[in-house]
Amino acid sequence: MNTTFAKFLIPAALLGTMMAPVAAQAAPTHHHSINGREHQQNHRIYQGVRHGSLTPREAAQLERREANLRRQEYHARLSGGRLTTRERARLQRKENHVSETIYHQKHDRQHR
Questions:
Q1: Cβ contacts of residue 106 below 8 Å, gap of 6+?
Q2: Predicted TM-score (pTM) above 0.85
Q3: From CA 91, how far away is CA 85, in angstroms rounded?
Q4: Most exposed of 47, 54, 75, 112 (fewest Cβ within 10 Å)?
Q5: How would you write the pLDDT of the chain (112 residues) with one tens digit per residue?
Q6: How far apart are CA 8 and CA 23, in angstroms?
Q7: What is the DSSP letter of 28?
Q8: How far is CA 2 from CA 10, 11, 13, 16, 86, in A?
């Protein structure tokens, strides 16, 4: 093996192994999917209850909204197993609205 080539190959290989975890962290998360957002928002509700920034009544209302979205997604998928672009956009708009509601309820200075 050429020593000049080895001088470049070994550092390049080391750099590649060091950069792999960084690239894995930069990979997109599942939070952009409908199920990923539902999971994330349920986690936010749970955190709000645990920290006291959501009252039990607020949490129950938010959980009902999430359950309603899950039912709507289920019914939309019955038509063929996949969501159309329009159905996905409608569900994402509703998820956005629930997300805003979670934020406002967590920051409305009501504590249990």
A1: 44, 48, 53, 54
A2: no
A3: 10
A4: 75
A5: 556 555 555 655 555 555 555 444 444 445 567 788 889 999 999 999 999 999 999 999 999 999 999 999 999 888 888 888 999 999 999 999 999 999 999 888 776 6
A6: 22
A7: P
A8: 12, 15, 16, 21, 59
